[in-house]
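Below is how a single chain appears once it has passed through the pipeline. First comes the sequence as given, then the structure the pipeline wrote out for it. We keep one example in the README because the format questions we get most often are answered faster by looking than by reading.
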Amino acid sequence: MPLDESRPTFWVLLFRGTESVVTLRVVDKLSLGCFWPNESSVLLHVNAGGNISCPGLACSDNTGTVWFKGNTAFSKQKRQFCQRDGRLELCTVWEPDSGVYFCDRRIIEEEVTWTFRRSVTVTVIPRLKANSAPEIRSPAANLTEEVELDRPHNLTCEAFFDFEIDFSPRVLWFMNYGGSIKNRTLLDMETLRQTRVSLKQIKVTRKATIEEVTLQHLNHTYTCVAGNRVGNSTVTITLQRKTKVIWPSLVGYPLASFAVVAGLGVIFHTKRLELQIIWRSHFPYGKDDGEEKEFDVFLSYVLSPPSAGGLALSSRTGAQDCEEAHLSNVPLEVQLAQVLEEQWGYRLCLIERDVLPGGAYANDVILTIKRSQMLLCVLSADYLANNDAVFVLESGVQALLQKSALKLLLIWTDGHPSSLNLPHASLELVQRALKVLPSLTWSPHKSSAATSSFWTSLRKSMPDHRIGLVSPTQCQ
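Resulting structure:
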């Protein structure tokens, strides 16, 4: 019966002459002069011929070898093979040929017959290197998955890889902000799971988890990237809010009543987003997740082109300076920065001043909005045509819809949205929010005075609690 060689030992059978006494001796492998670890394993290619050498065969002139696979002598197996110089030669290698083989050789020393039994682990492989890039079979390309808001959701990617010796698969999930692959981030993912589905293929599965689905997640796309040494494969999907089937509760009522209720439902569904924004704007939840706010106001704008003869603002105080702060030839964004911070004492956040360069723009914007009490957007045609500026406004609306304590105020400098042709690239969420969000209108000729209704209304809309360190100076 073949002996298992699972421990670092060497089995030796002793036959003493014609006596029926068998002595089994166990010795350390390292004590043998003819031991090479690399002889204990062999890789054979399927559908090709292959040779299996008995370890330590070169240490003796005796080439008489008996081969076993498992507990069965190889000579009793019904397949084509031959033995040459102590090697086992397989005419054609098949997948079932993988396994542990044993070879017995007899050596006579000092009238003692020694039987050396060595084991060889044979692995049948289709190839050494992969021939093609992985194939992503799930999810399908351009798939839309249904999700439930305020619930966790798992994204699962299944990719099939070619077998290779140095197998190092890559499967990653990315979230693309606003659908742009140039502005994306890695999702939280589980470890890779590998399953050998056939001799030539290995299935690799990886899941990514969204802890809590929000409306903002519906505006992004999600990409699975699978790669090996040959190349990469990608699949991008979107998320869609799951529609719950609700059976009419007025079954049996007159048809007219049902039509009225259905009509109201259609109207509410059509204007639901606008109503939700109006409700959150005027009745904020006041939920800040226990985080300390760093800024009073996040001021978002696109700097207007400088006008000829524009004046720089003075940092002096008093009635004269307050009047200079509202000169019509000074851009509104410059006036706001001085009045809010230097005169009213609010802690202001300006991206070009207070956000460190070199980071991910989308992450910096979302984090800064979360750490501010109020988002103030100075809207103009240039603003709505700027993708980065529209992203700031979109993030603020999303934060408002996510039960945040954030206040959001718009200042129109080029008229009301009804008088502007919004770019087709603007998001639907932004277009609908512009119609209902609290807003003020700036007119260089009517709003420049310190006592104008614009500055009075703006002061009333500011946060009650200031965290700024500058002592406020009232404009009289």
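Confidence is low (pLDDT under 50) at residues 1-18, 307-322, 469-476.

See the next section for the split statistics.
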